[in-house]
């Protein structure tokens, strides 16, 4: 066993000499977040240097865009702008590369090239890391150069650092989060203003919350990418996105929200990550019913929150702005400081390194909650009995049934029929619902919401 | 301007060689938190090594107690126990010193000696750092050896790392916290079970929440120590505790809580830290009325929460267990990992270094909120008019008055008279209340609660 000497390690004197040097940032992307990084550095650069004991001074050396002619929120000299990503990465004035262009192609090339050049990377790109993190973390390890990605999950909330550093001594029992602000906004507007899904989505787009192409927001995949990253950090292995169960909010209808309210719940797009007793990991994203009194039910609008349960820390909650220019830039700047420090550390890989070859994921069929199921049925006597018989045969308990009558069409032929079901494995429920779909009186696939016990 | 080379800095190879060495902890204190550290390390030591890429292995080399014969939650070999703190610090097997004995005398000596020996310190002692931090941070700087103190504020909530690292790129506009669990528990029991202060305190003691001597809990000073540390981190200068306004919860009576409820508020012991436009800092602790709908109002029992407002990150909230064996140990272990890493970094002072000589504190007289004031008055006609006249002369607006009649003594001579007042400087209020105290009809010093706009 080697012991540490009490004298300062070799290299300390050398580091002292470079105390006041400036580190150059290669900023790929000057859009919403990229501009925010420039502005934050302009605003608070002295403060950052002060707070780091004079060791860190950051300057944007070069920035990458598609269209150099575009007017931007942040001003940079014309000769600092390039449209050639290879020039950005190779520039000797660039010590750290910040990837904020989005997508998984050019972004991948940029991050990979930076790692190969030994330049630490800061990124906000959850899609890239969730889809292609395995390759990139391997490169990070090979070249002993960290990737920092606080900005990728929950905007301004320091959830990455919390899970990775503050909870380093905790087994993480679960993480439950509202981590897509757009969905949260839409669900809330449906609940409070009685809007249809499409109306609420339009509103979110008009307000600039949803992307021009809001597909990943509403189909659950943006949240899933973030959940995958959180699970990877907590459990140390790369998670195959194709093994993760993801459902979005497109199927939510005002009637579901009305029911939820009546039963004491709110509907939230929930990301659930949980370790089972056998060490396997449950990862899923879907619109869920959660108790109105739970603190996550109070996460409004485009805010995000993640509840983390550690074996030592107990129950914690981290809440804040889930996206937007300044909050996301706040996280990117914190990572930049981390990266700047890591450049001086001999043992300095502070990025994420997978530490397990693989781990077991719980198949979604084996995950268990209570459920709310809405059927579109033909309105005739016997319908409830037929459905109930199928559920009974499968051993699934019913805690309530409701048939909301639409006052405008009290004698409609097709009605919504809602069943609240006791806890059972999701696979059993799916099989049983497939059988029920075969019944004459059932007109389309039933819609399922989990009722989460938090 | 010196630039960084892209090749690994000198020292990296050497650090690689010591990859699997074990760092020895000198653990001063094996009480609630100290035992928790031993247990957490026993439980999750492999996980910690894995998560740090194999670079950190921690072992308790020596532990300090007063009474070696005492049975403890955590088992250590007899030869690892000492009652001599100097032996602990000097032991060559001790690389990092953890101070968990409490108090400001021996604890000071231990921390100072460790810093002088170049051994990083981890402590949970807010009283020590708030009262004598100036001396210790100076020693930390002189000997280039960090003090880590995540466990000192809000138990298992990583609020120190958040303010210091995650928000490094933010000007901190305000921090508002419920950071004394015992007070919070007492106030809640008074509200929900109608207990008197003394009954609720007794209950908290029986449950082990309050200290045997709960003075610092209920007089507000435990929260004040934590607020001082948070303000010091956020603004970079040592704050003189004697300049901080601190009021505890001893004066809260059931009638105040009843009133708060009726008016849509809850009473919480609130720590408020806020930067004014001129750069001066407001730091104060007192029982306050906060709106029932605010998220801080949902912080129940012995939980803690801190709302942080950064200029970039926006509004955030950090919530979790404020104290207790495991949560506090969780923070101490995270700091141990940080300290272990810092031992290998040439530029590795990751502790706090004050970066301003001094800063201005806002005198409490100049801080402004609305108020609730309770007077003990003689019940005769004209009382309201006399008090109101004094307030009017001072230019303080009244938004409501209430005279709760006690159904058991409807004709008592002395009654409580409550005034709700518009915003004004605290100093003006105090002067005016002194005048009002001089009135014949007022029988004792009025009790003041701030009504906070959050
Ligand atoms: N927006 C948020 O609130 C938020 C929050 C968290 C994470 N993120 C993540 O942060 C990343 C950036 O998001 P954003 O909202 O800032 O995007 P954005 O506003 O669309 O900006 C993208 C920027 O990258 C540049 N760019 C895109 N493709 C390029 C290419 N192939 N070559 C050169 N330049 C290219 C664009 O140049 P032009 O300006 O010339 O078109 C633009 O400046 C994404 O990964 C996103 O998921 C965003
Ligand atoms: N308890 C919490 O939830 C909590 C939360 C946050 C921070 N903290 C802070 O953590 C620190 C420790 O708190 P704690 O609750 O663990 O205290 P504790 O249970 O009273 O334990 C104190 C330990 O220190 C030893 N000790 C005390 N004075 C000593 C001396 N002069 N010489 C040698 N050993 C001495 C005691 O030895 P014996 O066992 O032999 O008496 C005991 O093992 C305090 O600064 C506290 O403010 C505590």
From TrEMBL, chains A, B:
Binding site residues for L-homoserine: 211
GO terms, biological process: methionine biosynthetic process; threonine biosynthetic process
Active site: 226
Keywords noted in UniProt: Amino-acid biosynthesis, Membrane, Methionine biosynthesis, NADP, Oxidoreductase, Threonine biosynthesis, Transmembrane, Transmembrane helix
Domain of life from the UniProt record: Bacteria
Residue span, Homoserine dehydrogenase catalytic domain: 158-337
Listed GO MF terms: homoserine dehydrogenase activity; NADP binding
EC number, as in UniProt: 1.1.1.3
InterPro entries recorded: ACT-like_dom_sf (IPR045865), Asp/hSer_DH_NAD-bd (IPR005106), HDH (IPR016204), HDH_cat (IPR001342), HDH_CS (IPR019811), NAD(P)-bd_dom_sf (IPR036291)
Catalyzed reaction equations: L-homoserine + NADP(+) = L-aspartate 4-semialdehyde + NADPH + H(+)
Transmembrane parts of this sequence: 21-41
Pathway connected to this protein: Amino-acid biosynthesis; L-threonine biosynthesis; L-threonine from L-aspartate: step 3/5; Amino-acid biosynthesis; L-methionine biosynthesis via de novo pathway; L-homoserine from L-aspartate: step 3/3
Annotated NADPH binding sites: 126
Amino-acid positions noted as binding NADP(+) in the UniProt annotation, renumbered to this chain: 28-35
Entry's family note: Belongs to the homoserine dehydrogenase family.
Descriptive protein name: Homoserine dehydrogenase
Source organism of this protein record: Haloferula rosea
């Amino acid at each position: 066993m080697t012991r540490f000497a009490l004298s300062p390690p070799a290299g300390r004197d050398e580091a002292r000499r470079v105390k006041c040097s400036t580190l150059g940032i290669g900023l790929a992307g000057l859009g919403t977040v990229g501009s925010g990084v420039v502005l934050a550095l302009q605003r608070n650069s002295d403060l950052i240097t002060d707070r780091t004991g004079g060791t860190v001074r950051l300057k944007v050396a070069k920035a990458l865009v598609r269209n150099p002619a575009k007017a931007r929120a942040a001003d940079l000299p014309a000769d600092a702008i390039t449209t050639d990503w290879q020039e950005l990465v190779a520039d000797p004035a660039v010590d750290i590369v910040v990837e904020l262009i989005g997508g998984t192609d050019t972004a991948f090339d940029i991050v990979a090239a930076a790692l190969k050049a030994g330049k630490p990377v800061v990124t906000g790109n959850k899609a890239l890391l969730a889809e292609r993190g395995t390759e990139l973390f391997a490169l990070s390890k090979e070249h002993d150069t960290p990737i920092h990605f606080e900005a990728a999950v929950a905007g301004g909330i320091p959830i990455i650092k919390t899970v990775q550093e503050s909870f380093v001594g905790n087994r993480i029992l679960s993480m439950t989060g509202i981590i897509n602000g757009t969905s949260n906004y839409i669900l809330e507007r449906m609940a409070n203003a009685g809007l249809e899904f499409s109306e609420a989505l339009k509103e979110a787009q008009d307000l600039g919350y949803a992307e021009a192409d809001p597909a990943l927001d509403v189909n659950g995949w943006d949240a899933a990418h973030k959940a995958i990253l959180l699970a990877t950090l907590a459990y140390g292995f790369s998670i195959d996105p194709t093994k993760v169960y993801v459902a979005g909010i497109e199927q939510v209808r005002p009637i579901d929200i009305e029911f939820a309210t009546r039963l004491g719940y709110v509907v939230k797009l929930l990301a659930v990550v949980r370790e089972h007793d056998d060490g396997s990991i449950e990862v899923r994203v879907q619109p869920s019913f959660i108790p109105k009194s739970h603190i996550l039910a109070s996460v409004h609008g485009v805010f995000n929150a993640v509840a983390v349960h550690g074996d030592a820390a107990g129950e914690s909650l981290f809440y804040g702005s889930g996206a937007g220019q300044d909050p996301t830039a706040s996280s990117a700047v914190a990572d930049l400081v981390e990266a700047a420090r890591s450049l001086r550390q001999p043992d300095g890989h502070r990025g994420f390194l997978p530490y397990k070859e693989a781990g077991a994921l719980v198949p979604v069929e084996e995950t268990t909650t209570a459920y709310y199921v809405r059927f579109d049925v033909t309105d005739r006597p016997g319908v409830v009995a037929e459905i109930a018989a199928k559920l009974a045969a499968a051993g699934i308990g019913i805690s309530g049934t409701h048939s909301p009558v639409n006052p405008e069409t009290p004698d409609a032929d097709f009605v919504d029929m809602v069943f609240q079901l006791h806890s059972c494995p999701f696979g059993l429920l799916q099989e049983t619902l497939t059988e029920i779909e075969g019944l004459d009186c059932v007109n389309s696939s039933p819609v399922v919401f989990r009722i989460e016990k938090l």
